Amino acid sequence: MAKLVFYGRFADFMGRERSITIDGEKRLDAVIEELALANGAFADAVKARAVKFAINDEMAPNAAIVADSDEIAVLPPFSGG
Amino acid sequence: MISLSPEPIDAAALQAGFLAGLGDAGAAVSFTGIVRGEGARNVEALYLDHAPPLTGPAIEKALETAAAKWPLIKTLIVHRIGRVEVGAPIVFVATAAAHRRAAFEACEFLMDFLKTDAPFWKKQICRGGEEWIEPRSEDYADRERWR
Hints:
The structure holds two protein chains of two kinds.
Chain A: E1 2-6, H1 9-14, E2 17-20, E3 25-27, H2 28-37, H3 40-47, E4 52-55, E5 58-60, E6 65-67, E7 71-75
Parallel strand pairs in A: 1-7
Antiparallel strand pairs in A: 1-2, 3-6, 4-5, 4-7
Chain B: E1 2-5, H1 11-19, E2 27-34, E3 43-50, H2 52-69, E4 72-80, E5 82-85, E6 89-97, H3 100-116, E7 120-126, E8 129-133, H4 137-144
Parallel strand pairs in B: 1-4
Antiparallel strand pairs in B: 2-6, 3-5, 3-7, 4-6, 7-8
């Protein structure tokens, strides 16, 4: 199972963590698109802003390839300070 | 040094600690960011979410970038996580260098980084409800100054 970890506003819709099955290898943006299909509020929140991702604790581009063993962090725009 | 903590920030104590043992520094700059009440919005507090495996390493990298850009003698970043009440410090950044320009610029650079490029997420808790807030266009413009 791949682990998805949501931060900031995304955690409000999706909870902090979810497990999903990824068959073989998939593009990260395809995984997120599938997830959005099942959750309208998450879909709207993702569409409205520049989302960043980390795979196994390293920042990764939308086109990165993920597999069932990966941990994927879904990150809204950063806002500290 | 970096500290991410749910405990209150005592800026005066941090400043005193930072100023002790500065070696050959001729300039020390510090910045304290405070949670604003925002007047009519009646903000009560901010809630700070962060990503433990990402936030510390991202700040480390920014400190390395600062150290490569300016001849810094000492740096300190203390950032709150969790709930921070209005009027309380949310962040403390200090830099020291031989001369003031490097200390001023590095402190601004690190603050601009924290606003837009460090994995934190801020939720404004108002009397009437809660809202996640994102950087203003000015914050992104400030960051661009260093590119």
